Amino acid sequence: VNQTAASIAVGMPREFDEDGNVVKSCFFKLQECLDSMIEFLKTSAEQNKTDSFEDEILIYAGCLTHLKKEIRLGALVGIYIILNEAQIPFAIIDVILEELFQALRSWEMQEDLFTVSALEIIGKYGTHDIVHENIPLLVSILIDNDNQIIQNHVFKTLVAIGFRGIEALVTIASKDYNDMQQYILERLVNTEYIQKVVIVSALLNDAKSRSGRIRELAVAALNRMYSLTWQGGALPTLVEMLKDGSMDRQLVASTIRSTGLVGEQTLLQVLKKTENAKVKLAIVSIIGWRLPLKPPAVRIILQGPGVLELENIEPGNLCSYHLNPVPAAFVENESPDILSINSRDFLAALNRMLSFDPENLALYSSSQDRFLDTFLQYRENQLRNPGVDTDQEQVCTISAEIVQSLCECLHDECAAVREMAANTLGNIGYPELLDAIPDLVSALDDYDPQVKAMTIWAIGSAGPAAAKRAGRALVKLLKDNYWKVRTNACITIGNLGPNVADTALPVLIKILRDSSINNNVVAETMVRLGQKGERLLIDILREEHLLGAKLKTAIIQSFALANTNNSNIDFVLEILFKIAYDSVKQVREACLRSINELRKKANNDITYLKPKNLLPFFYQFLKDKDKGVKKTVKNCIKSFGPQGELIFIEGLMKDKNPTIRAESAKGLSLFGARVFRTLLL
User: Taking Cα atoms as reference points, which of 636, 646, 629, 630 lies closest to residue 600?
Assistant: First the structure.
């Protein structure tokens, strides 16, 4: 135990972050303290009496007042583990709670991590009579200390207790004990339960306002409250708004979708029953939104005396809005949305809430606020995978019900709904899209060309996995009467990859020569079909005397997409180096750009493309007669970084050709003024 204590005392990381939350790096301290406690029990005479969880947890409880802090903390963690793994009789829970409150009476003598852990265990039993009896103790700890870490966790514990804990907090705020009003209200306004009961209700009231602008802003704020929106009872009102069209249906549908699985099922039911094309269109445009696992919720701040005021809020208006009223599904990387709350009316709303029947006031509970739960998960993961960090970002999936509903919409009588269904399926993409491929292939026969073009794009989003089921149908569409259908089919065939090369290439060769589809698109598609496509294009270039400059340029540009890891790359480079001296300036420029792109992809794995071989090749084009070619080659040389800078310096200072010296000076200017300062020195 002494050795463990010494190792803990030396070089320990901080236990709390700037917000007072326990940092994960201290989990190993908890584990070491638990190990110390177990080792202590092995040497204890009482260990022989331990036959059950009940006996063990009582021994842990008896160690809460041990002289060694590592033993006290280890005992606390042991208690928490047993409470989560076993059914403990109420009588023993009574003993545990009594011991915890006894320890808290001297909380000033305990280390912060112990106090925080004890408070979390107490919060798990918020409805217990012993907890209720000791609310005055928790209130005194909250009011009478200047340790904000402890204050924050006492606050969380009082909220977790439920009605009586929140009542105690509101009472303190109303009487402003020790200037605690601002502290309590700022934290209550960011408490999930209060947001659900008070804030969502206020937003619903604003959503029924006579002002269209206020209604829109209120719904946009609800859109950013996510699951709290349905928990606060807003779904029925939102569904009515969606049906009657009293405001932007897409925003309303996004708000319903943002509530999670409940919102998803609600939208699917409405979609199945409604005949209104506008309602269908709004739902179909939103239903494929992948909800973030940790959504960027609206930032709620308090306004009032002692708090920074953004603007004046009239009495009776709880909310003031500072957000963009667009669906959250379409907002990326914007500044955080802000919802300002009038502190005066917020306190009044809290008192009204407490006038309800306490039995109808649901308890607040959030495992995210319990770091010991997170520690248990960490401990379990480490036992299964020692030394492996299992914190990985999870990917939101789209349910099979959503995909099936969208497939049904592909056959809707409204063309706009069919097109939007295809668009949404395409945005969903791989892997969920694979289940929709048969329906999408069937939709390729749609009489509306816009629907057909969008369906083709959606199939391409599935990638090579859709090749077998969609390849032949897409090749047929290369001859469609509508240009957009032909172009989309060509691009999508490239997405499907080499598996459709044998079927598609003969048709693409003919199209490349008759130009019924843009030459750049066709050439790029052929390169993306793999080695067979590359070989055909190389053969065409070898007959360059039969080619026009536009077709030649299109093929050369497409080689920038060539695979540098297959055996064809030598032949691709050979033809590019050869044609780089073509008499047409556009062809020379295209060659230089494609060679440079292949050099970046090769990452020094191809001898021809290494700087020592390629830089001299580029260097000679500095004396080209065309300004565009010289500009292109200067950018190519710059992309080499310091090596390119050096060759420019040598060209400026040593080359006898005045044109090369002048172009080298211009090339150096691309690196900034520091280069010229170096030259002057």
Answer: 636
